[in-house]
């Protein structure tokens, strides 16, 4: 016989567990939550079954569930009552995210709050920065507003700043802004590798942030490009980012692997809204086994090199893990 017997290591559950290379733990998960400024609302997002727009009183119940399930990191997205051309709602002291952050830190001090630092949910035109007369997003003029947003989020108690608007120089600007305000110890998790993706569709329904005109291709990356991701990575590392997000995740596993191989910072996969919606839709139709498909997707991101995963499935995964089938 002159072939290898690979099946030796697959002979029983205990054997397979012993040689398993990749695993998922609750500590790897970051749970995104949509917080709406209106009162007493729990509004299910039609394209994201199981995910809601929550007003602050309902957020309290959601945080309790998440905390009790074992989640120790949440990320808030805000839906403000008022929007204007420069996204003021993103950086005011009593903005919806600032209030949600204070509430969460008060109720669960040991649960990390990640702040998505962007303007698109707060601008009336839905773009991620200030516009010039031709509808182009202004880079340098937008940076001070992002800095203000990050500082106000840190003041409210955010543990990690996650800038996502894809302006050049945003990591450097936010780092100096945080340092000047005394927040040397607040890390930046950069969404510097963010593709202009159709997979964000359901998020834009949830966050009410679809651009009124045009698209985000002038600042988010072209899905066809791989080397460009390495250039984004290089600048963000040079500018002082502490962790790097790749977004979306499942169609970009090659990019996650590239970031892992070309940097030493923790790598984060953002399992985005469209990925959630597709899986949920198939599961609700009875076409796939939801638990097994979700866990396989999570493992694929970890195997590609992600250290942690931002996912709308976070609570479900905690429940799967509690059943003990994955240890
Ligand atoms: C804010 C932001 C977006 C997402 C995360 N932060 C939307 C966008 O860029 O259009 C998308 C997340 C998801 O689809 O789950 N800029």
Automatic annotation (TrEMBL):
<comment type="subunit">
    <text>Homooctamer.</text>
</comment>
<feature type="active site" description="Schiff-base intermediate with substrate">
    <location>
        <position position="194"/>
    </location>
</feature>
<dbReference type="InterPro" id="IPR001731">
    <property type="entry name" value="ALAD"/>
</dbReference>
<feature type="binding site">
    <location>
        <position position="204"/>
    </location>
    <ligand>
        <name>5-aminolevulinate 1</name>
    </ligand>
</feature>
<feature type="binding site">
    <location>
        <position position="216"/>
    </location>
    <ligand>
        <name>5-aminolevulinate 1</name>
    </ligand>
</feature>
<feature type="binding site">
    <location>
        <position position="128"/>
    </location>
    <ligand>
        <name>Zn(2+)</name>
    </ligand>
</feature>
<comment type="function">
    <text>Catalyzes an early step in the biosynthesis of tetrapyrroles. Binds two molecules of 5-aminolevulinate per subunit, each at a distinct site, and catalyzes their condensation to form porphobilinogen.</text>
</comment>
<comment type="pathway">
    <text>Porphyrin-containing compound metabolism; protoporphyrin-IX biosynthesis; coproporphyrinogen-III from 5-aminolevulinate: step 1/4.</text>
</comment>
<feature type="binding site">
    <location>
        <position position="312"/>
    </location>
    <ligand>
        <name>5-aminolevulinate 2</name>
    </ligand>
</feature>
<keyword id="KW-0479">Metal-binding</keyword>
<dbReference type="GO" id="GO:0004655">
    <property type="term" value="F:porphobilinogen synthase activity"/>
</dbReference>
<dbReference type="InterPro" id="IPR030656">
    <property type="entry name" value="ALAD_AS"/>
</dbReference>
<keyword id="KW-0350">Heme biosynthesis</keyword>
<dbReference type="Pfam" id="PF00490">
    <property type="entry name" value="ALAD"/>
</dbReference>
<protein>
    <recommendedName>
        <fullName>Delta-aminolevulinic acid dehydratase</fullName>
        <ecNumber>4.2.1.24</ecNumber>
    </recommendedName>
</protein>
<keyword id="KW-0460">Magnesium</keyword>
<feature type="binding site">
    <location>
        <position position="118"/>
    </location>
    <ligand>
        <name>Zn(2+)</name>
    </ligand>
</feature>
<keyword id="KW-0627">Porphyrin biosynthesis</keyword>
<dbReference type="GO" id="GO:0008270">
    <property type="term" value="F:zinc ion binding"/>
</dbReference>
<keyword id="KW-0456">Lyase</keyword>
<comment type="similarity">
    <text>Belongs to the ALAD family.</text>
</comment>
<feature type="active site" description="Schiff-base intermediate with substrate">
    <location>
        <position position="247"/>
    </location>
</feature>
<feature type="binding site">
    <location>
        <position position="120"/>
    </location>
    <ligand>
        <name>Zn(2+)</name>
    </ligand>
</feature>
<dbReference type="GO" id="GO:0006782">
    <property type="term" value="P:protoporphyrinogen IX biosynthetic process"/>
</dbReference>
<keyword id="KW-0862">Zinc</keyword>
<dbReference type="InterPro" id="IPR013785">
    <property type="entry name" value="Aldolase_TIM"/>
</dbReference>
<feature type="binding site">
    <location>
        <position position="232"/>
    </location>
    <ligand>
        <name>Mg(2+)</name>
    </ligand>
</feature>
<feature type="binding site">
    <location>
        <position position="273"/>
    </location>
    <ligand>
        <name>5-aminolevulinate 2</name>
    </ligand>
</feature>
<dbReference type="GO" id="GO:0005829">
    <property type="term" value="C:cytosol"/>
</dbReference>
